[in-house]
Amino acid sequence: MRRTLPIAALAVACSIGTAATAHADVRLTPFAGVTFGDDAPASKFNTGLGISFMGRVAGFEVDFGYTPDFYDEKTDFELVGDGNITTLFGNVVIGASSGRVQPYGVFGVGLIRSRVGDAEDLFDDVTTNDFGISAGGGVNFMMSDRVGIRGDIRYFRALHDDEPADNDFDLAVGSFGFWRATGGVTFRF
């Protein structure tokens, strides 16, 4: 059951995204914001890019986010710390695609890549790649037919294999999670 949930979610996302592209508009949204809450030691600057393919009420989105100093390891002499988080998610989008105000919800699966570096070089850099899930929502305020402003909030949670020694791929909800709030400019094609 644990293995089928992420696979089923990905299959639904792909089928909705494929069906929606027959009558889809493409939206490109560079964004910036903050990560906070749960396992985030402090509110940290985040940036990224989302590209979505929207039908009338459903679509598919690819979301890339990067937080350069997620683990708050920066010293006074460093511009950017060694600990960062990178996310790459495929999301199902459900919401309005017409009108000036377009609310939406998202649910997705993807990759959460964590990199932790030790400032004192006591340990080597530790990098982990975890599957994850995300859920959230937001609203697009379309200023014209082609340009709008997007506000978005999402929750990210890592998944892990309870028994990595066995040959089964059993995913369970992990203990690592955080929130991300962003704003961006949406370009509609």
Describe the 3D structure.
- The protein has 189 residues and is mainly beta.
- The chain has one domain: Beta Barrel (Porin), CATH 2.40.160.20.
- Helix content is 9%, strand content 59%.
- It is built from one helix and eight strands; from the N terminus they run H-E-E-E-E-E-E-E-E.
- A hairpin with a 4-residue loop joins strand 6 and strand 7.
- The longest helix has 17 residues.
How does the SSE layout of this entry go?
Elements: H1 4-20, E1 25-36, E2 44-54, E3 58-67, E4 84-95, E5 101-116, E6 126-142, E7 147-161, E8 171-188
What is the average of the pLDDT values?
84
Number of domains: 1
Q: Overall 3D geometry?
A: globular
**Hey, roughly how much beta strand do the residues contain?**
over 45%
Major sheet characteristics: 8 strands, antiparallel, barrel
CATH architecture: Beta Barrel
Class by SSE composition: mainly beta
Q: Which fold name is given in CATH as the topology? A: Porin
Helical run tally: 1
The level-1 CATH class:
Mainly Beta
For the record, give the distance between the C-alpha atoms at the N and C termini, rounded to a whole number: 39 Å
Low-confidence parts: 17-21
